[in-house]
Amino acid sequence: MKKAQHTKKPIKKPSKKQQTRLSRWFESLPNWLKVTLRSKWFKIAVIVAVFAYAFMWTGGTWFDFIRFPKVDNPNYGVSFSAKRARELGLDPHANLSALLSEMGIKNYRLMSYWDDVEKTRGTFDFAELDWEIAEIAKYGGTVSLSIGLRQPRWPECHAPSWAYELKGNAWKQALYAYMEIVVKRYEHNNTVINWQLENEAVNNWFGTCDPPDRERLNEEFDLVRSWSKKPIWMSLSDQHGYPVNQPTPDKFGYSVYRWVWNDKFPPYGTYLIYPTPVWYHRLRAVIIGAYTGKDIFIHELQLEPWGPEDTKNLSVEEQNKSMSPQQIHDNLSYAREIGAKDIYVWGGEWWYWRKTHGDPSIWNTVKHELETQR
Question: pTM (2 decimals)?
Answer without folding.
Answer: 0.83
